[in-house]
């Protein structure tokens, strides 16, 4: 389930808001004590995330499917895409990569996708336990007014906010029940000239 990009954060009590983490979207499959990790394009990246694998295999569950983001956090606790790229590169420290868990699709043989999001997140929190295992961050709902949440997120240097309908079931694909609002907007532009030797700084 992928969020659609919107220009303004949605308002109202039916929405909950979470940090937009800057990493690689992954699905973690636990079965018979063994964890496998797949990217959104279903590439098997299990060997690239040893910390996540070891942590998930210690959870008290026979089988589970966790939806989340593989990230590396900096000294201030913010996720850094450049850092996860370095960690995944040749000679990188893959053990620094941890899991931000934000949804639970299956647990002990039960398909949780028809459940409302709030119930799935509650089941996920129960599975992870308190305190959280080392190597996992639970994606908490951010309390407060939506516009203020977004403004503070941008001030802190976050990539943006993901907003989700509290009652949304889990359906694959890009859905309007999940939306993302980015602090830095992007678009397509026409380059009408450039000055040789100055790289992108010389575009006009």
Determine the N-to-C terminus distance: 38 Å
Query: What share of the residues lie within helices?
Result: 10-25%
Strands, count: 10
The Cα radius of gyration reads: 19 Å
Structural class determined from secondary elements: alpha+beta
Main sheet specs: 6 strands, mixed
Tally the helices: 4
Assign an overall shape: globular
Unreliable residue runs = 197-204
Mean pLDDT: 91
> How much strand?
25-35%
Order of SSEs, N→C?
Answer: EEEEHEHEEHEHEE
Task: Produce the secondary structure layout.
Blueprint: E1 2-5, E2 15-19, E3 24-31, E4 34-39, H1 50-56, E5 63-71, H2 81-88, E6 98-107, E7 110-111, H3 117-128, E8 136-138, H4 146-155, E9 160-165, E10 174-182
Parallel strand pairs: 1-10, 6-8
Antiparallel strand pairs: 2-9, 3-4, 3-5, 5-6, 6-7, 9-10
């Amino acid at each position: 389930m992928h969020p659609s990009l919107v220009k303004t954060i949605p308002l109202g009590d039916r929405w909950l808001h979470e940090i937009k983490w800057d990493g690689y979207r992954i699905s973690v499959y636990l079965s018979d004590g063994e964890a496998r990790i797949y990217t959104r394009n279903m590439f098997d990246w299990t060997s690239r995330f040893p910390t996540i694998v070891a942590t998930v295999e210690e959870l008290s569950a026979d089988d589970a499917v966790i939806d989340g983001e593989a990230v590396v956090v900096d000294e201030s606790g913010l996720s850094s895409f450049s850092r996860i790229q370095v960690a995944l590169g040749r000679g990188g420290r893959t053990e620094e990569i941890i899991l931000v868990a934000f949804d639970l699709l299956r647990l002990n043989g039960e398909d949780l996708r028809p459940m409302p999001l709030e119930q799935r997140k509650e089941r996920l929190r129960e599975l992870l336990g308190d305190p959280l295992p080392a190597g996992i961050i639970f994606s908490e709902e951010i309390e407060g007014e939506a516009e203020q949440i977004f403004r503070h997120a941008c001030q802190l240097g976050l990539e943006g906010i993901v907003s989700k309908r509290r009652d949304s079931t889990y359906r694959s694909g890009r859905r309007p029940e999940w939306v993302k609002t980015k602090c830095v907007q992007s678009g397509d532009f026409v380059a009408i000239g450039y000055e040789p030797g100055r790289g992108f700084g010389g575009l006009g």
